[in-house]
Amino acid sequence: MKKKIDENKFSITVKTENNRNFKERLTKLITEFASLYHRKGFNYADLMPAIEYLLYCTYASKNVEELGIVGFEDNYKFDAAKHALGNDYVAKDYLKYFERFESAKAEVNLPELNAGILAKNADLEFISTWIEMFDDSCLSLSKDCSYSIAASIHGILRGANLAFEDKEGFQYLCNTSLATCMSALVGTADETVCDFACGTGTVVSRAVKSGARKAVINDVDPLMVERSKIAIFFANPTASIEATSDDVFVDGVPAEIADACFVQPPLGVRLINKTSANQARSITALPGLQGVEASSFKSEEYAIGLALEALKKEGTAIVHVPMRFLFGSSKSEKTTRKALIQNSFVKAVFELPAGFVVGSSISSALVVLEKGSQKARNHKVLLVDMASTYLEDQAFFEKSKFSNVITSEGIKWACDLLTEPKDVSMVAKLVSVEEFEQTDYSFIYSRYGNVFDYKKAWETTRSFEEIVSDIENEQEKLESISQDIDSMLARIASEG
Predict the structure, then answer these.
(1) Is the pTM of this model over 0.85?
(2) Any residues with CB less than 8 A from the CB of 475 and at least 6 apart, and which?
(3) What is the pLDDT of residues 2-17, one digit of tens each?
(4) Of 119, 43, 160, 226, nearest in space to 402 by CA
(5) So what's the pLDDT on residue 274?
(6) Is the CB of residue 111 less than 8 Å from the CB of residue 233?
(7) Which stretch of DSSP H or E encloses residue 3?
(8) Predicted pLDDT at 420
(9) CA torsion sign, 30 to 31 to 34 to 37?
């Protein structure tokens, strides 16, 4: 039987057994396994990477033929490991095999992973319990639709991370709908995409799912890099992955490596303790900032320079920034905005409602950058206030437990507007360089577009004569009522 599952506004067809929903069953397995070991003292922040790794190993070993993997040893297929429960090799070799396995690849190349992704103190019992619970679940991951199942697993893992991670792990998580929006705004079909602050890989895996053929990823935390590899694999098992774990704020990024770049840096972090000769080099991609002390910049400002450096000519980048960056008066904020406008790197700015940073209520925005084709836009920048009250009835946003959600309707509206930029009353405006110069290069829509509909207010305002006439009519009514009351009181008095 075929069923449709809705995961973050996209539908996937998968085959299920016993008429039970694949998503529900896998979610139940992950929840039960995580809960079991959480009760034994494991933190969810340790458990989720381990579960992702175990699920990756399970999926790959059960889909060797479907994935076109060459050179896979039969002893490490899931069914063989299942029958060897209790043997030391299950714990010592089964997962390590995936760490060092390199396929001769037909359709897919398994990402090289570090077995250290496993939860702390994971042992034979930990791994055996997973194999046993998975086997008992009767879940099938190889029913002639392995890629669809992989995409479904990707969505389930994203949801599990939000459900299980405590606030200490939120800095690595991205709002899934925001990731989808970022990918859609840029457009990534058949391109190389880059994310040098990848976290758990939410944004870059969305781009890969949308058709990007190669992902270049980096995070200062090696564990996050491993998790991103798995997220990308499940988003599209055929995508190629190039990964590093450098501190890009110190070491910089390679120049012109990507067609599209996504950056969600830690917001508002000053780089005062980051000192390197490479900082000056990395910021040179943004003319006008040379000679400015790199340590005076905050993370999002410096990330903009890095994104531009990583882009190929004609490439597009999208950077998630705190709302303050759009209007802040610090030297670094004003200098960065001025350099972006004077060099025509900004294509659009989308202001978002508060609550799109996981675990926080701060307001933020998306800055869309272009490299190489700015002159064709005649130096005009699209500023959009997606938090405008004039969009409230459009159902572009929904409330969620940890963060707000951009609906598919909201994403489509934003993409259509970016494709054909235009003024939208009370919501969006195309702004010229000259106008930016007059506002100290503010990126806030309200500095240029109307936030109050004066025309509508005027149209609904009544003339002075109409108001006077209404007052006179009401006075006549009151006088008539008063006379009636006087007559009634006089009659009562005469009747005693």
Answers:
(1) no
(2) none
(3) 223 233 322 233 334 4
(4) 160
(5) 54
(6) yes
(7) strand 2-7
(8) 93
(9) negative
Give the C-alpha separation, 304 to 285, whole Å. 9
Torsion of CA 168, 42, 139, 102, to 10 degrees: 80
Longest CA pairwise span in the chain (Å): 116
Quick count: other Cβ atoms within 10 Å of Cβ 92? 14
d(C-alpha 188, C-alpha 261), whole Å: 10
As its CATH architecture, domain 171-447 has: 3-Layer(aba) Sandwich (3.40)
Say which amino acid occupies 454: Y
Q: In angstroms, what CA-CA distances link 395 with 183, 406, 427? A: 20, 9, 15
Distance CA 4, CA 11 (A): 6
- The structure tokens listed for 441 are 């290069």
pLDDT confidence of residue 442? 95
For the chain, give every domain's residue range: 2-165, 171-447, 464-491
DSSP, residue by residue, 306-339: HHHHHEEEEEEEEEEEEGGGGT--SHHHHHHHHH
C-alpha distances (whole Å) from 452 to each of 44, 382, 457 are 47, 19, 9
Total residue length of the chain = 496
Give Cα 70 distance to the centre of its chain.
Answer: 34
Report d(CA 289, CA 453) in Å as an integer.
39
Of 55, 32, 28, 203, residue with least CA distance to 127: 55
Low-confidence ranges of the chain (pLDDT < 50): 1-20, 106, 166-170, 277-282, 454, 457
Q: How many Å apart are CA 117 and CA 13, to the nearest integer?
A: 31
Mean pLDDT value across the chain: 77
Token pair belonging to 200 = 């758990």
DSSP state of 412: H
Residue 433: both structure tokens together: 């360089």
